[in-house]
Design brief:
237 residues; alpha/beta; seven-stranded parallel β-sheet; 7 helices; 7 strands
């Protein structure tokens, strides 16, 4: 299937490893010109070396308030446009619901909710100018089925889902879609750090799902939260 991504410009954040890396590689394989950013310069360079085609590598901490606008600006300066945004950020620490504290919750909301919102706000004017846009926010299957020891993540990512659901309706008339990709357990450093075991997904396969959500054929898919979790989520909604 031709995903219609040849020569489209994509920005993928937190792309030096794991699911962000999988998304960047998948978009590049479809012919997109890709800008990637992450804090770890060495890992970012490794990812850039593996990207097929034109790539812009930008070391940065995307959770800093000014970074999303700057990274979008740098992408447009290099490639002349921005058509695809894949927003991703590392997850917060473990905690049970009654163990959370205000400062840690603020950091989680900033990293896993506000960072994506800032990226979308910075990207949308360029997509409107192009008359075409695809936004995919990487979250977690926990927006459908909360994970007991990840209370910070549950709260921040579910808040992002509520925001995204309302934002998607504001963008559809402009030819812009906004969806969430919601991974379950994948073979990433983050999942290993959490001590997960058992069957896990391949981050590169996850990246192919993201590429489809960012594709031309997916132009009528918007406001959706697509679970990529190997049937881990048991809810019917």
């Amino acid at each position: 299937m031709d995903l219609g991504l040849a020569n489209r410009v994509a920005l993928v954040t937190a792309a030096s490893r794991g699911l962000g890396r999988g998304a960047a590689l998948a978009l590049a394989r479809e012919g997109a010109r890709v800008a990637i950013c992450a804090r770890d310069r060495a890992r970012l360079a490794e990812t850039a070396a593996g990207v097929r085609g034109e790539v812009l590598s930008i070391p940065a901490d995307v959770t800093e308030a000014a970074t999303p606008g700057r990274r979008v600006g740098a992408t447009v300066e290099r490639f002349g446009a921005l058509h695809v945004l894949v927003a991703n950020a590392g997850g917060p620490p473990q905690a049970r619901a009654l163990e959370v504290d205000a400062e840690a919750m603020t950091r989680a909301v900033n990293a896993n909710m506000m960072t994506s919102i800032r990226l979308v706000q910075a990207a949308v004017p360029h997509m409107r100018r192009a008359g075409w846009g695809r936004i995919c926010l990487l979250t977690s299957f926990s927006i459908k089925q909360p994970i007991p020891n990840l209370a910070y993540s549950n709260a921040a990512r579910t808040g992002l889902w509520a925001w995204a659901k309302t934002a998607a309706a504001d963008l559809t008339a402009d030819g812009i879609t906004l969806n969430l990709a919601c991974p379950g357990l994948h073979a990433t450093d983050r999942v290993r750090e959490l001590g997960a075991t058992g069957r896990m997904g391949d981050p590169e396969d996850f990246g192919r799902v993201v590429a489809f959500l960012c594709s031309e054929p997916a132009g009528f898919v918007s406001g959706a939260a697509v679970q990529v979790d190997g049937a881990a989520t048991l809810g019917l909604l």
